[in-house]
# Entry
Amino acid sequence: MKKIFTMMLVLALIASALVGCSQPAAPAETPAEAPAETPTETPTETPAAGEGMIAKVGLGQNISIAKSKDAGTDANGNPVMAQAQMDVTMAAVGFDADGKVVSVTLDVVQPKVAFDSDLKITSDVKEEVKSKKDLKEEYGMKGSSAIGKEWYEQAAAFEEWMIGKTVDEITGLKVKEVNPSHQNVPDVPELTSSVTITVESYIAAVEEAWINAVDAPGAETVGLGVETHISGKDKGLDANGKEVLPRAQSDTYMSATAFDKDGKVVVALIDNAQVRVNYDAEGKVTNDKAAEGKTKHELKEEYGMKDSSPIKKEWYEQMTAFQDWMAGKTIDEITGLKVKEANPTHQNVPDVPELTSSVTITVEGYLAVVKEASEMAR
# Structure
């Protein structure tokens, strides 16, 4: 009986061993849920241009002398003094690969040159003219604003509205006329409580920035720099006894500059709006007040500097060379440029071998606006 039991036990152990050999071995560790696809590398870089990154940068502007006043009398017979006003509106804009606005800065300067009854200049020609953004509360619009906001606050709201939009969407903004001096006020719900200024000149500047935009590979921020000075001539006689007619002039240096992640210049776009308002002997403006002014870049050969240039190059040609020199440099390297005095009106001419044959203009104003652009970049 014991032999039978032992034989049965042996047969059972053999059968169990055979069954175990027919099953696959269990894995050492089975994940609860395997991913459908495991990437070989997790991306850590920022999105490429076209996904909210700056791909192009542009500088746009427009110039008007329409608000300049003739000498004369008002409706009540009171004397009115001649006063030139040169409005320069600017926009520095960064666009993505799809043409959408990534960064935009708007600003305006309204330099004024006032004359007395003898057509002598009474304005302080030594004082730099502040832009509306620089003036902030000093501009003094809040008291007359229907929404109680200063110009810089309204401009900031308008800039914010433009972000993510194409130029077609921006120029297609629905507007309304509030009064004769405010004919293009935004008429969309998202701007009703934040923008009541007339916006046609800002839209035009942004559109021009897009038209003139250039590639800016690697740019992460764009800034606007502005500097303005006034000058002019009194009515009188020159050293030869010849009549001198009164004239007002403003010079606005401007720059839209793009910077990379290390603060180096990717693209610097620099221009100068040199605006003149001419008067006759009676104090009447002789310019066409309705004509839009041109910057030095827009004038090109019309500016007429080539003949007097020691290197026979026009202003726009020299500025293009200067802009190219800035690319890849930091602000400290740019503002540390070695300069020399060529004559009393050219006291800061580049004095480095790589610019000797290409830039003989005085550059202090242009260095200043590129520096300011770096401080304002976003």
User: Anything to note?
Assistant: Residues 47-293 form one domain. The chain has nine helices and 17 strands.
